Structure formats: structure tokens, C-alpha cells
Amino acid sequence: MFLPYRYRTIRRALARSRILRTLLLIFIAWNLIEVHLILSRISEADQETIYRDQPRRKERIYIASVNWNSEIILRSHWSQALLELAWKLGPENVYISIYESGSYDNTKEALMELDSELERLGIPRTIVLSPITHEDELAATPGEGWVESPLGDMALRRIPYLSRTRNLSLRPLEELAKHGYTFDKILFLNDVVFTPNDVFQLLDTNDGSYAAACSMDFAKAPNYYDTFALRDASGHEALMSTWPFFRNTVSRHAMKNLHPVPVQSCWNGMGKP
């Protein structure tokens, strides 16, 4: 039977609409299944013994941190968590190095209070409070780490600056080595909320067999905070800041099953290089 062109067009449009609805329903169903699977994995993980009071092996850990305008989190979470971590690792197994880089708030005062608590517990450390502010850095004569901006002026590049300050937090290693103090691992801690068990789980990633391991930092869940250095197992940048995060199926599958996620590079809330 011959149908006018207008009716054939309507039928094709209805068919396409049914196909789109079907695909949408499949997509929603698939995502609901994945969410259920992830929640089940989380429940199973909570029942396992992955959280411990202390790591499985006694190790000497060098803890390095750079703080800038961190007063609020230092007083609310960070300082107490660091004290608990150092105590559980054992004062004889830990050294803490903190470099404060010219904060505008009362970060210096908060770190001085932390220093007093570390002293009371007998935990060895170096805490440097730098008088150099960011205005001082920007007012300095351009040199290494500076680049010409599209506007034609010179700008201080963020990554070389951060690398330099983090290297300053590692400087005590040289002097400690001269006196025979060595460490099994170096742990970088950013100004994030963490617990000692978070650190132990990170250190025990893949039973301790890895070139580097990083945490995942969610400033406003479910959005991943810092994707700048993150590259999945294939070397791709993050697909998006929320699920599924990674392009690589191996990385995505590991995260979905709460396994250590293989990546080519990472840097986030805490990391063990």
C-alpha cells in the first residue's frame, strides 16, 4: 500500500523515537547495574580486614608536605590525623618534613602548635616557615621557571614553582643520610582530609609492589579534584571528572571493582613515589 510522503516521514520519526527510548532505557539499566555492583563491592570491602591499626610490615617512612594557606584544614583535621599516623607508625619509624610557603592566613601559627605536639610525642621532624610570600615570588627578577605569557609579559609557571617547594620539603633527607638515617618509603601528604588507615591502605597497594601509588581526591564528590597529572593505563588524560573517569577499560574496570587502578602517572591528595 502506498503511503503519502508525510506519513512515511512520521513513521520513520516514530521508529527512531522508539529506538532512542530503547537505547536510553538500556543505558539507564546498565548504569543502575554498575552502581549496584560498586555499592556491593564497597560493602564487601568494609567487611574485609583491609583497614588495620598498623601496616603489615615495619617500615621507615619519610613524610613530606607543603602547606600554603592551610590553617582551616590543619586545625580541623590534618594536624590530628598526622599525629595519629606518626604515633601508629612509631616515632622511631617516621620523620616528618613540612615546608610552609609564605601563607597569608595563620598557617604558621597552626604549624607551630603542631610542632609542639610532635615534640611532646618525641617525633622527629623539620618544619620550615618561609617568610617569602607569593607577592615576593612574583616581584622577583624572572629566571628559571618563568615563561612569556600570551600577553607578552613574564609569568611564574605553577608546576616548576610547586616542584621547587616540594624539593625543599625533601632537603632534610640529605642531612639525615649523612648521619646514617635512611628510609624505606617517602610519603607526600597534601592538605587533604585523611585517616591513618587511608595511608596504610595506600602504602600496601598491590602488596607494596608499585613504582608509585596515589590516592584519589574528591573535593566535591563525585567530582575528582586534580586530573592535571592523571593518565590512565594507556596514557590518556581523564575522560571526565566523574564516573567513568578513565578512557582505558582496564583502569575503569579496576576502579569499578575497588581494585588498585593501573595508571601511567598520578598526583593527588597523597602519594608514594
Molecular structure report:
With 273 residues, the chain is an alpha/beta fold. It folds into three domains: 48 residues; 137 residues, no CATH class; 70 residues, no CATH class. Helices cover 44% and strands 15% of the residues. It contains eight helices and ten strands. A six-stranded mixed β-sheet has the order 3-2-1-6-10-7, sandwiched between helices. Strand 4 and strand 5 form a beta hairpin. Helix 2 runs parallel beside helix 3. The chain is globular.
Give me the secondary-structure topology.
Layout: H1 5-47, E1 61-67, H2 71-89, E2 94-101, H3 107-121, E3 125-130, H4 134-139, E4 146-148, E5 154-156, H5 158-170, H6 172-178, E6 185-189, H7 196-203, E7 213-214, E8 231-232, H8 249-256, E9 263-265, E10 270-272
Parallel strand pairs: 1-2, 1-6, 2-3
Antiparallel strand pairs: 4-5, 6-10, 7-10, 8-9
Helix pairs in contact: 2-3
Summary tags:
two-stranded antiparallel ribbon; 8 helices; Mannosyltransferase 1, CMT1; six-stranded mixed sheet; 10 strands; alpha/beta; globular; 44% helix
Quick synopsis:
With 273 residues, this protein is α/β, with parallel strands linked by helices.
Radius of gyration: 25 Å
Instruction: Tell the overall outline.
Output: globular
User: Number of DSSP helices?
Assistant: 8
- Sheet/helix structural class: alpha/beta
Q: What count of domains describes the coordinates?
A: 3
Major sheet description = 6 strands, mixed
Beta strand %: 15-25%
Strand order of the largest sheet: 3-2-1-6-10-7
| SSE string, helices as H and strands as E | HEHEHEHEEHHEHEEHEE
Mean pLDDT: 83
Helix percent reads 40-55%
Tell me the number of strands: 10
Uncertain runs are: 47-51
Rounded to the nearest angstrom, the distance between the terminal CA atoms is 73 Å
